[in-house]
What we know:
Blueprint: H1 17-39, H2 52-67, H3 78-105, H4 117-145, H5 155-182, H6 186-199, H7 212-218, H8 222-234, H9 245-272
Helix pairs in contact: 1-4, 2-3, 3-4, 3-5, 3-6, 3-8, 4-5, 5-8, 5-9, 8-9
Amino acid sequence: MTRTITQYDPGHDPRSTHYALKQKGHVMQAVILRDVRTRFFNHGLGFLLVPLWPLAHMFILLMIYTFMGRKAPFGDSLRLFFATGLLPCLTFMYVSRFMALSIVINRPMLAIPAVKVLDILFARAFLEVIAAFLMVFLTFLILLSLGDNPFPNDWEQATLAFLSTILLAIGVGVLVGVITSMFTFFATVYALTLIVVYISSGTLFVVSALPAQAAYALSWNPALQAVEWMRSAFFPTYNSPVLDKYYLLSFGLGALFLGLVLERSVRRIVLEGK
Length: 274
């Protein structure tokens, strides 16, 4: 009697971690592809338009300020001042907001047993983070072509500021996204909240020029902390009276932790209410 010995392949064993990760990878890929097609004009190339929205935002502000004859509140270049404020602020806003909207847009996918809320959220986070890096790259090229100096005074701090902003955006995006998976209207509530966040983020003004009490009140806005961190990395003489890097990191990690715990707690409720 001949025995056939087959080689063990962990990639095909449903009990193995390798198999679980492989399956999760396939799910994420499917969600990402659907997200690209549904949001970006049913064509992958539409994704290239994503980083252009923040650039258009910056261009409109420059047109308004130039028409009004306004000068940069800090530094010699109005373009660089706006860029150092808008890049972190809009990165936080766009990534977190579209992570929340991804649940509303892709809710039918939750009918598939293999797809979970976190799969949809992290698939959208992946796309939005790539778009954020493209936005930074395009802004860098535009500033360079216009004669500005887009190089930060401290590369390490500028990089840490941007990565911390992404952490904040993903953390808040997960938390808001999980809440939105239970209460769809919360996506609208969060979008309105972001208007307040934007106005108080310091993108259009210098915090140190405000009264101490006003500056302290605004310092609780984590987006303002991201802006202050970025500007302090670009301008060597930019002294922020409210910059707290640990607060920004703690806020991002705390939001991510709460979001993951909440998703775990309400997973069955969300999936049953598909």
